[in-house]
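REQUEST FORM: STRUCTURE PREDICTION
Request ID: SP-0412
Submitted by: Lab K.M.
Chain count: 1
Length (residues): 251
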Amino acid sequence: MAELKQNLQAFTTPSPITDKARMHRVNTAVKSIGNICTGCRYCEGCPVDIPVPTIVYAANILALQKNSSDNAETQKQINAELFRTIRREHGQLLDSSENPCIHCGECERKCTQKLNITKIVDEVYQRAGQCGFTFDAWRLRFNELLHAKPYRIIGFYPGGGYLSKVLTLYQQLFGDFPFEKRVIFDSNPALKGRIINNMEVFSPGDITNINPDCILICNYNFQDEIYKSLEKYSDTIDILPLHEDNYVPLT
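STATUS: Completed
RESULT:
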């Protein structure tokens, strides 16, 4: 209750900053950022089908975070937010990291903010290649991990919604799975014996008995922790982290 009362005082205690000073501070901060996309979508209609409005609006995160630290973890978070927005609005990954822009300038002529759209689009495509946010990147990744391997029995760890996205993407790229048997391993005892994505769920204690050729870790946030927990099986089973270190999540 003490914390609640203290927080409520924020709405009743007079601010030491005048309205004029506050507006000056806000305007100064906004001007330092430069123009950002307002989401008007006037730039729509790219002749080579680049989702320009989605890319430019999502790239606001790059403008807002331009003074952020260059350390890998910070940039990873920025990229995750950038491509999460594109995935939500565009509905899918970009085809490749190769920017198909023909520099016709049509989108820039329509832009009310006079943004350098071609430069923004080019940076986003470059980041997409670095972060695995393209169909080409995942085609290579799946081929390296699974498709080109002579596996017969494959395990996925864990089950859940993220696994469903991984399976859907794999089937988009390669069609049906060529493996003789597919199973899921999950530490949640409530899932054991259930059928998820047409696969039976087993506990980690069943790994030795089933003895799959590989286990693909289908989790983004806890990939390293899961790998460490499964590493004891690596003498006889290939333990495969799904994501490269710089990849952004599929969601």
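NOTES: The chain has a mean pLDDT of 89.
Reviewed by: T.R.
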